[in-house]
Amino acid sequence: MLRTSLASLSPLFMLAVMSIWLGGCGQGEQQAGDTASSTTATATAGATAANTTAAKEPASTAPVTLKVLMSPSEDYFNQFIAAPVKAKFPNVTMQYYDVAKHPVDQLVMTGEIPDIYNGYYNTYRMKEFQLQYDLTPLIKKYNFNVTRIDDALMQSTKEFSVKGELDGLPANRNGATTVYSKDIFDKFGVPYPKDGMTWDDMLSLAAKMTRTADGIEYSGFHLNSYLHIKRELGLSFFDANGKAQVTTPGWQKLAQTMKAINAIPGNNPKGGTYGIFTNKNIAIDVGGLVSFLHHQDQISPQVNWDIATYPVFKEAPESVPSEFGNIYAIPGQSKNKDIAFQIIDYLLSDEVQKMIAVGGNEMSSLKNPELQKAFGSELPLLKGKNVAAIFKLKPTAQRVEDNYSTANSVMNKALANMLAKNQDINTALREAEEQLNKSVAELNSR
């Protein structure tokens, strides 16, 4: 596999590569029926009206191999994608491509364009290389009922597109939640966190749990990333014109919350996301539950823990971060769009989604309450846990933006500097906004 970076390639070569693939994209759109741009609204409306029992066009029985580019592991692929697909479509062979070993730029250069991609990071790369494809014509053609999917996840998926097209379908989500150590709460005789707690209530409780006892320093609260709060508040790094906008009231509330966490005397959580289990001295951790479950080896069976709803703001007592997961999508250059979409349709069926959900492997993107009840039902680790808390509140739609990595890096540094130097919020956000505009200008000038 080539290891040449795109930055080192000549402009003429890159122009030739992009011309080949963009040309292929146009041919692919004709294959699906109409051009995506002219049919998005009408096709989606038609698909919405279709019910799940509507007749679907039969899949081709011709032998075919589909290349699947994924973020999830090969074990996950074999168990929850390749195996059920082979049982349903015996003529289809699914070929696994690990995105970590097969970056999109290299696939473009070698012509190994996947037929399906499943992931989050790869979506940004697909957009970067203009390999996206509006699924709307296929949604209409195969009577796929998009109303079965969570509304916030659908809106988040549209954020990936250039003009509001539907370039993918949500495969799963993470599930924002509060995880807490019952052992530490029992040790100090403090009531457990409750569902529906606000940020003020949660941080007040965390302050009570932050103390030193028997020579051990206990931290009351750990937040994995400020991005959770960004998503909860529905904030954007940039406005519609691409200018940084991180001095708004929403960003001020985010900074105030970060300062409130940092102001808890003695709160110095160590061990990262899994410190609540590995170090056994963190009382509360907020983040995505599925992320915990993907690292079960980090979860000590000796720790007695449970779940509560993610903390909310008083202004939006029923909203939590989207914790957007992966999407299924089809590159515009695939020659197997129809069968690829029929595979995605099947993978998003209640049947396959339940198979994945019961083991706590992923939270389904579907609205079906039976799938929510099924989540983790066969996972011993979740036995007796308040799993229902994950589904009690409504996730917000997640903003997806260009120059996201650059913006995230700038804001991480700005917020860390604000907390370390006790800088005032207005100054910190103003300087971050200036740095964001400067960084993006430098990127655009390359």
Describe what this molecule looks like in 3D.
With 446 residues, the chain is α/β, with parallel strands linked by helices. The protein has 18 helices and 15 strands. Strand 7 (211-213) and strand 8 (216-218) form a beta hairpin. The radius of gyration is 23 Å and the shape is globular. Residues 1-53 have low confidence and may be disordered.
How confident overall, as mean pLDDT? 84
> Structural class of the helices, strands and pairings?
alpha/beta
* Overall domain count: 2
Helix content: 40-55%
Largest sheet: 5 strands, mixed
So, the CATH homologous superfamily of the largest domain? Periplasmic binding protein-like II
Number of helices: 18
End-to-end distance: 27 Å
CATH architectural grouping of the largest domain: 3-Layer(aba) Sandwich
CATH class group of the largest domain: Alpha Beta
**Number of distinct beta strands:** 15
Shape: globular
The spatial strand order of the largest sheet comes to: 2-1-3-13-4
- Rounded to the nearest angstrom, the radius of gyration is 23 Å
What proportion of the residues form beta strands (DSSP E)? Answer: 5-15%
CATH topology of the largest domain: D-Maltodextrin-Binding Protein, domain 2
Low-confidence stretches: 1-53
